[in-house]
Input
Amino acid sequence: MTILSGKDLNKEYVNRDRSVRPLQHVDFELNQGEILGIVGESGSGKSTLLKVISGIEKPDSGKLYHMGKEYTGQGPEKTGKFLQMIFQDAYGSFDPRMSMERSLKEGSDESREEILRVIGEVGLTEGLLGRRPRHLSGGQCQRMSIARALLSHAGVLLCDEITSALDVTTQAQVIKLLMEIRDKERISIVLVSHDLALVSMICDRIMVMKDGIVVDNGETAKVISEPSSDYTRKLLESVITV
Ligand code: ADP
Ligand code: MG
Output
């Protein structure tokens, strides 16, 4: 079942002397319980796509659907009920003056029991709830932002380079956590990353973007074994060194 989709999405930014088109006729589909990877080099339009899907930015044209119902033009206050963004900078996504417990309570009216359940689910302990973001490690802070997203009971997580600021070991742990959550809670995940190796390991399907255009799209095994674009082939060559 398709939970989220977009049709013919376009977005242009016009600066003083030049314009950029980070989304050009982009279509996407996210199925229930799936992890969809979006890869491409820096500047290819990945973050713009997530911002447009979440309603932080509006597309110039094109349409967005949640469970078949159009939601184009809705901002994060509305889309937050069915999707949540998780950013690279976990620290920056929390109020530095507030304890984790207050931050987690702010966005939801969940009981302390539910907060403790979710904290356990993301692999953290109760003792960390009294801390401010700066007194957590990068990995702990990113787990807290995943916990906050889970407390909203949105069915979709949009993850933008969420492991890029973490060391390699912590990266692997956070990715493992995402896969566990997907299995346990049956949520659907869009995982944006410039790292094709990572994406190909955990995603069911992959979309490859280049300069605002989707140049490859399909099941992971198929995109990897039979890429339809030269660009994807080049990305693959730079990953597979054996
Ligand atoms: P990625 O996440 O793949 O690195 P982005 O979506 O952040 O790519 O950016 C795609 C292109 O759009 C880049 O050329 C970037 O400079 C440009 N861009 C992104 N946001 C803005 C903005 N608010 N104003 C002008 N240009 C932007
Ligand atoms: Mg980006």
